[in-house]
Amino acid sequence: MSVHEPTSHNFPENARKALGNKTLQRGLASAKVGFRVRRSEAAARLPEFETLRDESRDIKNHTLAHIDLYLEAFEKRVIERGGHVHWAADAAEAREAVLTICRAAGAKTVTKGKSMISEEMGLNAFLEENDIEPVETDLGEYIIQLRHETPSHIIAPAFHVLKEQVIDTFRKRPSIKGEFTVVIAGVNVNEKPSFTAEQIVQELKKRIDTQGLSRKDAVRVVAQEYGLAKNMVYQYSLALEKEDENS
């Protein structure tokens, strides 16, 4: 079972690898025009933004300092409304509590909301090991579930995944019952790409020989134009290297 252990002790090495990952850096670059800009715009529309943020911080810190009292109060309210609170000393007990609920309901498939605690306790892998299929309802969580990855951000779990990678991930996903269309950035991912490996290689070659693009730029252009994963197109570009070596 996969319980996510803290990686803080490996931070220097992980940081070096991340800084050298061009695909990851491209994804994170969107933050310059995404999170930061939108946050600033939202704050500008709310004059009391900083005051509210400080009050929220104080409420959070107070609650954590008295967490035992608030949890007991929460349980009391739940019981008053006919509910039941399951107490767990550790991740193993928490997983078993969820499994007991699922089995009591005869569940074979469960839908989940975005939950960092379920990530930390390895709930998805545990359910799968016990023949129960978890399905994330948050799009970002669903994307990384399909990719068998862990969240990269607490509110944007798939922040590190590029558009082309998302498209490729949905194309490779197991078939889902029901007729619906998934469109990402204008690309219908239900439609399997009709390109053969040879055609992709020829498209790359045309961009390099005719348009004078570098191999790197040719990979980027072909991937964008045809809605293909950049890393997949890059693999095909290696065939050109072999041609050059043999010529």
Short description:
The chain has 247 residues and is mainly alpha-helical. The protein has helices at 11-19, 22-28, 35-44, 49-65, 67-80, 91-104, 116-120, 123-129, 139-147, 163-172, 197-209, 215-226, 230-246, and strands at residues 109-112, 133-136, 183-184, 187-188.
For this entry, give a set of tags.
single chain, about 250 residues, 2 domains, 13 helices
Structure description:
- The protein has 247 residues and is mainly α.
- The chain has two domains: 1-45 and 86-161, no CATH class; 162-247, no CATH class.
- It contains 13 helices and four strands.
- The chain has helices spanning 11-19, 22-28, 35-44, 49-65, 67-80, 91-104, 116-120, 123-129, 139-147, 163-172, 197-209, 215-226, 230-246, and strands at 109-112, 133-136, 183-184, 187-188.
- The strands form two sheets. The protein has a two-stranded parallel sheet. It has a two-stranded antiparallel ribbon with strand order 3-4.
- Strand 3 and strand 4 (187-188) form a beta hairpin.
- Helix 11 packs across helix 12 (215-226), helix 11 crosses helix 13 (230-246) and helix 12 (215-226) crosses helix 13 (230-246).
- The longest helix has 17 residues, at 49-65.
- The radius of gyration is 24 Å and the shape is extended.
- The N and C termini lie far apart (50 Å).
